[in-house]
């Protein structure tokens, strides 16, 4: 007979695996029907579960939406952080102005993640889901991207105190960045700047200069 703690670990692994499958199916439905069309019953049906079993994991659709939102914010945040760190390492070898390189690396990583995960991007940066109110648990994950950019600014001025003018300019640039990404994902560049690679790189460089990096 297995020790109780070993059995508990097995149950925890099984629960973690089923939770992963639930979220994976939910993301598939998100791509097909959007956040408004996400249904716990449909998720349960596709996984061969009864609805009552799924409710033990996510009591409501909003709970499942929150999990997807947190996952998406963490994923795009991790992409920005890793790219900025790698960009700083490259810039340290003399490849270019350090802060400008980390800024560009983070921007490219954010765009790459958005292009690879357009429906999850739309969930966190698109139109609000009617009737859904994001809980406090989403604040930390949502802060990862802006905090990554704040760290770039701090490195640029070599101090923990960023000048107010630079902060305002960076906020403007941040909104421009996500505006460009949204335009690309939602088809606004078709017939003009598609593919948008060259335009995006040029714009990112212009935004860096605007910030003062």
Look at the helices and sheets and give the structural class. Answer: mainly alpha
Uncertain residue segments: none
> How many β-strand runs?
0
| Fraction of residues in H or I helices | over 70%
- Overall geometry: globular
Tally of helical runs = 10
Instruction: Please indicate the percent range of residues in DSSP E strands (runs of 2 or more).
Output: under 5%
* Intertermini distance: 63 Å
Main sheet characteristics: none
- The oligomeric state of the chains shown is single chain
CA radius of gyration: 21 Å
Mean pLDDT: 90
Please write the string of helix (H) and strand (E) elements.
HHHHHHHHHH
Describe the protein in words.
The chain is mainly α and 213 residues long. It contains ten helices and no strands. It starts with a helix and ends with a helix. Helix 5 (98-116) packs across helix 6 (118-125).
Layout of SSEs?
Elements: H1 4-33, H2 40-46, H3 51-55, H4 61-95, H5 98-116, H6 118-125, H7 139-142, H8 144-157, H9 164-185, H10 197-211
Keywords:
single chain, 213 residues, mainly alpha
Outline of the structure:
With 213 residues, the protein is mainly alpha-helical. It is built from ten helices and no strands.
